[in-house]
Write a structure and sequence with these properties.
- It comes from Staphylococcus warneri.
- Homodimer.
- Keywords: Amino-acid biosynthesis, Histidine biosynthesis, Hydrolase, Methionine biosynthesis, Multifunctional enzyme, NADP, One-carbon metabolism, Oxidoreductase, Purine biosynthesis.
- This protein is α/β, with parallel strands linked by helices.
- It folds into two domains: about 30-120, 3-Layer(aba) Sandwich (Rossmann fold), CATH 3.40.50; about 140-265, 3-Layer(aba) Sandwich (Rossmann fold), CATH 3.40.50.
- The chain is built from ten helices and eleven strands.
- The protein has helices spanning about 10-30, 45-60, 75-85, 105-110, 125-130, 140-150, 170-180, 195-200, 245-250, 260-280; strands at about 5, 35-40, 65-70, 95, 160-165, 185-190, 205, 225-230, 230-235, 240, 255.
- The strands form three sheets. Strands 1-11-8-7-5-6 form a six-stranded parallel beta sheet. Strands 3-2-4 form a three-stranded parallel beta sheet, with helices on both faces.
- The chain is globular and about 55 Å long.
- Guanine binds near residues 95, 96, 97, 120 and 141.
Protein backbone atom coordinates (compact mmCIF):
# COMPACT_ATOMS: atom_id res chain seq x y z
CA UNK A 1 0.00 0.00 0.00
CA UNK A 2 1.19 3.51 -0.77
CA UNK A 3 -0.51 6.14 1.32
CA UNK A 4 -2.65 8.94 0.00
CA UNK A 5 -0.97 12.29 0.69
CA UNK A 6 -3.13 14.52 2.87
CA UNK A 7 -2.22 17.83 1.27
CA UNK A 8 -2.74 20.41 4.01
CA UNK A 9 -1.72 23.27 1.75
CA UNK A 10 -4.49 22.55 -0.73
CA UNK A 11 -7.12 21.87 1.96
CA UNK A 12 -6.16 25.14 3.65
CA UNK A 13 -6.33 27.05 0.38
CA UNK A 14 -9.88 25.88 -0.33
CA UNK A 15 -10.98 26.53 3.26
CA UNK A 16 -9.52 30.05 3.25
CA UNK A 17 -11.41 30.89 0.07
CA UNK A 18 -14.63 30.06 1.95
CA UNK A 19 -13.52 32.29 4.85
CA UNK A 20 -12.65 35.11 2.44
CA UNK A 21 -16.18 35.00 1.03
CA UNK A 22 -17.61 35.20 4.55
CA UNK A 23 -15.33 38.12 5.44
CA UNK A 24 -16.67 39.99 2.40
CA UNK A 25 -20.25 39.45 3.58
CA UNK A 26 -19.35 40.76 7.05
CA UNK A 27 -17.62 43.78 5.54
CA UNK A 28 -20.72 44.57 3.50
CA UNK A 29 -22.57 44.77 6.83
CA UNK A 30 -19.95 47.21 8.15
CA UNK A 31 -17.87 44.78 10.23
CA UNK A 32 -14.22 43.98 9.50
CA UNK A 33 -12.76 41.11 11.58
CA UNK A 34 -9.49 42.07 13.26
CA UNK A 35 -6.90 39.70 14.72
CA UNK A 36 -4.45 41.12 17.28
CA UNK A 37 -1.41 39.03 18.11
CA UNK A 38 0.81 39.69 21.12
CA UNK A 39 4.40 38.53 20.71
CA UNK A 40 6.84 38.91 23.60
CA UNK A 41 10.55 38.56 22.82
CA UNK A 42 12.57 37.53 19.79
CA UNK A 43 12.19 33.76 19.43
CA UNK A 44 12.75 33.11 15.71
CA UNK A 45 10.10 30.43 15.28
CA UNK A 46 7.49 32.49 17.15
CA UNK A 47 8.24 35.56 15.04
CA UNK A 48 7.83 33.57 11.87
CA UNK A 49 4.52 32.03 13.09
CA UNK A 50 2.98 35.38 14.01
CA UNK A 51 4.05 36.94 10.71
CA UNK A 52 2.40 34.05 8.85
CA UNK A 53 -0.80 34.52 10.84
CA UNK A 54 -0.90 38.25 10.09
CA UNK A 55 -0.22 37.73 6.39
CA UNK A 56 -2.88 35.03 6.13
CA UNK A 57 -5.45 37.23 7.91
CA UNK A 58 -4.77 40.15 5.57
CA UNK A 59 -4.96 37.90 2.52
CA UNK A 60 -8.59 37.05 3.28
CA UNK A 61 -9.53 40.68 3.93
CA UNK A 62 -9.17 40.84 7.71
CA UNK A 63 -7.20 43.45 9.62
CA UNK A 64 -4.29 42.13 11.65
CA UNK A 65 -1.72 43.68 13.97
CA UNK A 66 1.27 42.30 15.81
CA UNK A 67 1.87 43.89 19.21
CA UNK A 68 5.56 43.14 19.59
CA UNK A 69 6.87 43.57 23.15
CA UNK A 70 10.53 43.24 24.15
CA UNK A 71 11.96 40.12 25.81
CA UNK A 72 12.24 41.91 29.19
CA UNK A 73 8.63 43.17 29.30
CA UNK A 74 7.13 42.73 32.78
CA UNK A 75 4.08 40.58 33.40
CA UNK A 76 2.20 43.70 34.46
CA UNK A 77 2.89 45.38 31.11
CA UNK A 78 1.79 42.31 29.13
CA UNK A 79 -1.43 42.21 31.19
CA UNK A 80 -2.12 45.88 30.62
CA UNK A 81 -1.58 45.51 26.87
CA UNK A 82 -4.02 42.62 26.95
CA UNK A 83 -6.55 44.68 28.87
CA UNK A 84 -6.33 47.38 26.22
CA UNK A 85 -7.07 44.84 23.46
CA UNK A 86 -9.89 43.25 25.52
CA UNK A 87 -11.58 46.65 25.68
CA UNK A 88 -10.87 47.75 22.12
CA UNK A 89 -14.10 47.37 20.16
CA UNK A 90 -12.25 47.16 16.84
CA UNK A 91 -10.51 43.92 17.95
CA UNK A 92 -12.39 40.65 17.24
CA UNK A 93 -9.76 38.10 18.26
CA UNK A 94 -6.67 38.09 20.47
CA UNK A 95 -3.85 35.58 20.46
CA UNK A 96 -0.82 35.59 22.74
CA UNK A 97 2.00 33.61 21.15
CA UNK A 98 3.54 31.09 23.56
CA UNK A 99 6.06 30.33 24.98
CA UNK A 100 6.44 33.54 26.98
CA UNK A 101 9.65 34.74 28.69
CA UNK A 102 10.13 33.33 32.19
CA UNK A 103 9.14 36.51 34.09
CA UNK A 104 5.66 36.33 32.55
CA UNK A 105 3.23 33.69 33.82
CA UNK A 106 1.61 31.95 30.87
CA UNK A 107 -1.32 30.89 33.01
CA UNK A 108 -2.01 34.43 34.26
CA UNK A 109 -1.81 35.87 30.77
CA UNK A 110 -4.04 33.24 29.16
CA UNK A 111 -6.60 33.68 31.94
CA UNK A 112 -6.64 37.44 31.32
CA UNK A 113 -7.78 37.14 27.69
CA UNK A 114 -11.45 37.99 27.25
CA UNK A 115 -12.91 34.48 26.60
CA UNK A 116 -15.07 35.95 23.82
CA UNK A 117 -11.93 37.06 21.96
CA UNK A 118 -9.89 33.95 22.78
CA UNK A 119 -9.34 32.64 19.26
CA UNK A 120 -6.75 30.11 20.46
CA UNK A 121 -9.25 28.50 22.83
CA UNK A 122 -6.67 28.54 25.66
CA UNK A 123 -8.76 30.34 28.31
CA UNK A 124 -9.87 27.97 31.13
CA UNK A 125 -13.54 28.77 30.54
CA UNK A 126 -13.23 27.79 26.86
CA UNK A 127 -11.26 24.64 27.74
CA UNK A 128 -14.01 23.78 30.25
CA UNK A 129 -16.72 24.27 27.65
CA UNK A 130 -14.90 21.99 25.23
CA UNK A 131 -14.77 19.28 27.88
CA UNK A 132 -18.51 19.44 28.51
CA UNK A 133 -19.28 19.51 24.78
CA UNK A 134 -20.53 23.10 24.67
CA UNK A 135 -19.89 25.20 21.59
CA UNK A 136 -16.74 27.25 22.12
CA UNK A 137 -13.42 28.34 20.63
CA UNK A 138 -11.44 25.16 20.02
CA UNK A 139 -7.60 25.24 19.81
CA UNK A 140 -6.49 25.71 16.22
CA UNK A 141 -4.16 22.75 15.58
CA UNK A 142 -6.72 20.18 16.85
CA UNK A 143 -9.42 21.88 14.79
CA UNK A 144 -7.14 21.75 11.74
CA UNK A 145 -6.46 18.04 12.27
CA UNK A 146 -10.20 17.31 12.37
CA UNK A 147 -10.67 19.31 9.16
CA UNK A 148 -8.00 17.20 7.41
CA UNK A 149 -9.73 13.98 8.54
CA UNK A 150 -13.12 15.32 7.43
CA UNK A 151 -11.81 16.49 4.09
CA UNK A 152 -10.27 13.07 3.42
CA UNK A 153 -13.57 11.39 4.37
CA UNK A 154 -11.94 9.37 7.12
CA UNK A 155 -14.36 7.43 9.23
CA UNK A 156 -13.73 8.10 12.93
CA UNK A 157 -16.61 6.45 14.76
CA UNK A 158 -15.57 3.26 16.56
CA UNK A 159 -11.97 3.56 15.34
CA UNK A 160 -8.92 3.16 17.56
CA UNK A 161 -7.20 6.54 17.71
CA UNK A 162 -3.81 6.89 19.36
CA UNK A 163 -2.65 10.41 20.23
CA UNK A 164 1.04 10.72 21.10
CA UNK A 165 1.61 13.73 23.36
CA UNK A 166 -0.60 15.23 26.06
CA UNK A 167 -0.06 18.98 25.65
CA UNK A 168 -2.83 21.48 26.33
CA UNK A 169 -2.34 22.92 22.84
CA UNK A 170 -2.62 19.71 20.80
CA UNK A 171 -2.64 16.28 22.47
CA UNK A 172 -5.43 16.71 25.00
CA UNK A 173 -7.84 18.81 22.94
CA UNK A 174 -7.48 16.66 19.82
CA UNK A 175 -8.18 13.60 21.98
CA UNK A 176 -11.40 15.25 23.12
CA UNK A 177 -12.43 16.08 19.54
CA UNK A 178 -11.78 12.48 18.45
CA UNK A 179 -13.82 11.26 21.42
CA UNK A 180 -16.67 13.60 20.45
CA UNK A 181 -16.71 11.78 17.13
CA UNK A 182 -16.88 8.43 18.91
CA UNK A 183 -13.33 7.16 18.42
CA UNK A 184 -11.78 4.98 21.11
CA UNK A 185 -8.93 7.22 22.19
CA UNK A 186 -5.63 6.35 23.83
CA UNK A 187 -3.20 9.11 24.85
CA UNK A 188 0.47 8.14 24.98
CA UNK A 189 3.06 10.30 26.72
CA UNK A 190 6.61 10.34 28.05
CA UNK A 191 5.80 7.91 30.88
CA UNK A 192 3.84 5.46 28.73
CA UNK A 193 5.15 1.91 28.58
CA UNK A 194 5.43 -0.08 25.36
CA UNK A 195 4.13 2.70 23.13
CA UNK A 196 4.68 0.59 20.01
CA UNK A 197 2.06 -1.97 21.05
CA UNK A 198 -0.62 0.74 21.30
CA UNK A 199 0.37 2.38 18.02
CA UNK A 200 0.21 -1.00 16.27
CA UNK A 201 -3.51 -1.27 17.15
CA UNK A 202 -4.34 2.25 15.94
CA UNK A 203 -6.50 3.05 12.92
CA UNK A 204 -5.65 6.73 13.37
CA UNK A 205 -2.34 8.01 14.80
CA UNK A 206 -1.83 11.66 15.75
CA UNK A 207 1.73 12.41 16.81
CA UNK A 208 2.45 15.73 18.53
CA UNK A 209 5.64 15.45 20.54
CA UNK A 210 8.40 17.05 18.46
CA UNK A 211 10.69 13.98 18.19
CA UNK A 212 11.82 13.33 14.62
CA UNK A 213 11.42 9.73 13.40
CA UNK A 214 9.59 8.65 16.58
CA UNK A 215 7.01 6.72 14.58
CA UNK A 216 8.54 4.12 12.27
CA UNK A 217 7.10 1.67 9.73
CA UNK A 218 7.29 -1.38 12.00
CA UNK A 219 5.05 0.32 14.60
CA UNK A 220 2.23 1.17 12.22
CA UNK A 221 -0.74 -1.01 11.31
CA UNK A 222 -1.33 -1.59 7.59
CA UNK A 223 -3.87 0.98 6.38
CA UNK A 224 -3.60 3.36 9.34
CA UNK A 225 -4.16 7.10 8.91
CA UNK A 226 -1.17 9.13 10.10
CA UNK A 227 -1.36 12.76 11.21
CA UNK A 228 2.06 14.26 11.94
CA UNK A 229 2.03 17.43 14.05
CA UNK A 230 5.80 17.44 14.68
CA UNK A 231 7.78 20.33 13.23
CA UNK A 232 11.29 20.24 14.62
CA UNK A 233 13.99 22.11 12.66
CA UNK A 234 17.06 19.99 11.83
CA UNK A 235 20.63 21.35 11.72
CA UNK A 236 19.90 22.96 8.31
CA UNK A 237 16.67 24.54 9.52
CA UNK A 238 14.55 22.03 7.57
CA UNK A 239 11.36 21.03 9.41
CA UNK A 240 11.09 17.40 10.51
CA UNK A 241 7.91 15.65 11.59
CA UNK A 242 7.56 12.96 14.28
CA UNK A 243 6.99 10.31 11.63
CA UNK A 244 9.57 8.59 9.40
CA UNK A 245 7.54 9.70 6.36
CA UNK A 246 9.34 7.81 3.57
CA UNK A 247 8.93 4.39 5.19
CA UNK A 248 5.59 4.89 6.96
CA UNK A 249 3.89 5.98 3.72
CA UNK A 250 4.45 2.43 2.46
CA UNK A 251 2.09 0.97 5.08
CA UNK A 252 -0.31 3.81 5.91
CA UNK A 253 -3.49 4.47 3.90
CA UNK A 254 -3.16 8.25 4.31
CA UNK A 255 -0.47 10.52 5.74
CA UNK A 256 0.26 14.23 6.25
CA UNK A 257 3.65 15.55 5.08
CA UNK A 258 5.86 17.93 7.07
CA UNK A 259 5.88 20.72 6.07
CA UNK A 260 2.61 21.22 4.21
CA UNK A 261 0.36 19.01 6.34
CA UNK A 262 -1.11 20.20 9.62
CA UNK A 263 0.71 23.58 9.73
CA UNK A 264 -1.34 25.39 7.05
CA UNK A 265 -4.55 24.22 8.72
CA UNK A 266 -3.50 25.61 12.12
CA UNK A 267 -3.23 29.10 10.67
CA UNK A 268 -6.48 28.61 8.77
CA UNK A 269 -8.28 27.79 12.01
CA UNK A 270 -6.94 30.97 13.67
CA UNK A 271 -8.71 32.82 10.85
CA UNK A 272 -11.80 30.65 11.25
CA UNK A 273 -11.98 31.44 14.97
CA UNK A 274 -11.41 35.16 14.39
CA UNK A 275 -14.33 35.23 11.97
CA UNK A 276 -16.44 33.27 14.48
CA UNK A 277 -15.52 35.74 17.26
CA UNK A 278 -16.60 38.69 15.12
CA UNK A 279 -19.87 37.01 14.15
CA UNK A 280 -20.66 36.05 17.75
CA UNK A 281 -20.15 39.49 19.21
CA UNK A 282 -22.20 41.10 16.43
CA UNK A 283 -24.97 38.52 16.87
CA UNK A 284 -24.66 37.28 13.30
CA UNK A 285 -25.82 33.69 12.50
N1 LIG B 1 2.81 28.40 20.12
C1 LIG B 1 2.83 27.22 19.46
N2 LIG B 1 1.61 26.92 18.98
C2 LIG B 1 0.81 27.95 19.34
C3 LIG B 1 -0.58 28.22 19.13
O1 LIG B 1 -1.33 27.45 18.52
N3 LIG B 1 -1.02 29.39 19.66
C4 LIG B 1 -0.22 30.24 20.34
N4 LIG B 1 -0.77 31.35 20.84
N5 LIG B 1 1.06 30.01 20.57
C5 LIG B 1 1.56 28.86 20.05
Amino acid sequence: MVAKLLDGKQIAKDYRQGLKDQVEVLKSKGYTPKLSVILVGNDGASQSYVRSKKKAAEKIGMISEIVHLSEDTSEEDVLSELERLNNDDSVSGILVQVPLPKQVSEQKVLEAINPEKDVDGFHPSNIGKLYIDEQTFVPCTPLGIMEILKHADIDIEGKNAVVIGRSHIVGQPVSKLLLQQNATVTILHSRSKDMASFIKEADIVVSAVGKPELVTKDMVKEGAVIIDVGNTPDENGKLKGDVAFDEVKEVASAITPVPGGVGPLTITMVLNNTLLAEKMRRGIE
